[in-house]
Design goal:
By secondary structure, the protein is mainly alpha-helical. 65% of the residues lie in helices and 2% in strands. Helix 1 (15-25) runs antiparallel to helix 2 (31-55) and helix 3 (69-84) packs across helix 5. Keywords: DNA-binding, Transcription, Transcription regulation.
Length: 179
């Protein structure tokens, strides 16, 4: 996700982002320190918000359709689980149980909120990690594919090519060499 794609959009802030905003608001009365402190905290808040938007971990505030705020927060937890535990053997049932939703509500709500299925989000997260490993390691492509949840090279190569437009070997060969 690119932050510019969300111009004018409103989001529910996570507990951590609210805490930073409250520290900005509650800054003490010392004039010189307060201005510098507020500026630093504002930059921290902005950077954390951009990062959250890029990770897709902020929940849109506008029009949650049929979702209650509680369900939307459970779906946000499901997304966090995918982003953090992508290397695990996550199933729809496991994610649903851990987030306190049934499988149907998880599937429908996830599509409504994130415009993709749970399995698409998981596959995308794994492919992003595979791309990172192709750029930053010398691991064989087959090992990277296996670590990314693909049981054979052909399915990994096909999925990677669909996502990034080139096979993993061509992607690695075209990557700039770090000095």
């Amino acid at each position: 996700m690119v932050p510019a794609d969300h111009d004018g959009e409103e989001f529910h802030l996570s507990h951590d982002l609210v805490a930073i905003a409250e520290r900005i608001w509650d800054a003490g009365p010392t004039p010189g320190v307060t201005q510098t402190y507020r500026l630093a905290k504002s930059i921290e808040l902005l950077c954390d918000m951009v990062g959250a938007i890029q990770r897709g971990s902020l929940m849109p505030y506008h029009d949650q359709g049929s979702l209650s705020l509680g369900d939307a927060r459970r779906l946000l937890e499901a997304r966090r689980m995918i982003d953090e535990e992508w290397a695990e053997k996550l199933t729809l049932g496991q994610i649903a149980r851990r987030c306190g939703l049934n499988r149907t509500k998880l599937s429908r709500g996830f599509r409504e909120l994130y415009h993709c299925s749970v399995s698409e989000a998981l596959a995308d997260r794994r492919l992003l990690e595979a791309r990172r490993q192709l750029l930053s390691t010398d691991l064989p492509i087959g090992v990277i594919g296996y670590r990314s949840g693909y049981s054979n090279n052909a399915s990994f190569t096909r999925a990677f090519g669909r996502r990034f437009g080139v096979p993993p070997s061509d992607f690695r060969n075209a990557a700039p060499v770090a000095a």
